[in-house]
Backbone:
């Protein structure tokens, strides 16, 4: 169930006020819960599940530092990006001009295909995700 | 070795062009290679590493579709967001306005700090890839 709230925004050029749907406050699914679910479903010991997730973080950092991207199956890829200072001529750009190296995630085939409104259920709530029990569940039909 | 290319970008406001370093196209390391690397640094068996990574994808997908954020500790977190069309009145906004469900990944503070300190301490290595070399390399994914 994806909870959405309605927010106003002023259109900059016309000054008119419009309303949009925006995701309401999300409940977090934390690492302990993740470990628990994976452990129960795979019958792998929680300590081992945790060890794999810890190692995954190390491996991701190491691969990104070495300029590789990491594909987490069909979920998506983690890849390094960088920002730099701008120079007037291409020859002037040096490695020392690189200001930051960051990690970005790009969604993969599964998320692109399945995390779409057509396959989700929505409910209109307040900013914190609360709504009256009688609030209908909305679906948006075929993609 | 982080490979980079030099790209021009136009400043829209004063219509000048400047040159910036940008990451070069990268080969992806796929899941089985990631699993081997994890196995090498833990006491968990190959089969179990693969099992955990496969289930991890499933759990992330399920939780995102259920409208929750997924917190993976030092790896970072994923959260769903929505793209919506506009309506004139508050009462007219419904799920029909929702055009896209997106995923935003936020790296953990630890990950960001590790990359930042690697950059400032100059322990990251960069290599410029010239356009001619790119053409010779050809079809790398």
Residues:
């Amino acid at each position: 169930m994806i909870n959405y709230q309605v927010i106003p925004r002023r259109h900059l050029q016309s000054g008119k006020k419009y309303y949009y749907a925006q995701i309401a406050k999300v409940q977090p699914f934390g690492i302990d819960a993740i470990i628990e679910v994976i452990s129960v479903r795979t019958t792998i010991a929680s300590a081992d599940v945790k060890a794999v997730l810890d190692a995954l973080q190390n491996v991701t950092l190491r691969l990104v530092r070495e300029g590789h991207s990491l594909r987490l199956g069909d979920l998506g890829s983690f890849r390094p990006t960088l920002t730099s200072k701008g120079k007037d001529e291409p020859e002037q750009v040096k490695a020392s001009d690189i200001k930051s190296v960051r990690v970005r995630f790009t969604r993969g085939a599964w998320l692109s295909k399945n995390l779409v409104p057509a396959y989700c259920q929505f409910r209109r709530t307040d900013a914190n995700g609360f709504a009256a029990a009688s609030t209908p569940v909305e679906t948006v039909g075929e993609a | 070795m982080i490979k980079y290319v030099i790209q021009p970008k136009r400043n829209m406001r004063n219509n000048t062009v400047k040159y910036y370093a940008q990451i070069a196209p990268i080969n992806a390391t796929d899941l089985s290679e990631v699993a081997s690397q994890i196995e090498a640094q833990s006491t968990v068996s190959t089969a179990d590493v693969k099992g955990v990574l496969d289930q991890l994808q499933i759990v992330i997908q399920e939780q995102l579709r259920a409208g929750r954020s997924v917190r993976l500790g030092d790896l970072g977190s994923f959260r769903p967001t929505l793209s919506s069309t506009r309506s004139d009145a508050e009462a007219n906004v419904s799920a029909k306005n929702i055009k896209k469900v997106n995923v935003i990944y936020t790296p953990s503070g630890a990950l960001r700090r590790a990359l930042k300190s690697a950059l400032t301490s100059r322990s990251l290595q960069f290599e410029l890839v010239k356009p001619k070399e790119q053409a010779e390399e050809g079809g790398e994914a």
Remarks:
- DSSP finds three helices and seven strands in chain A.
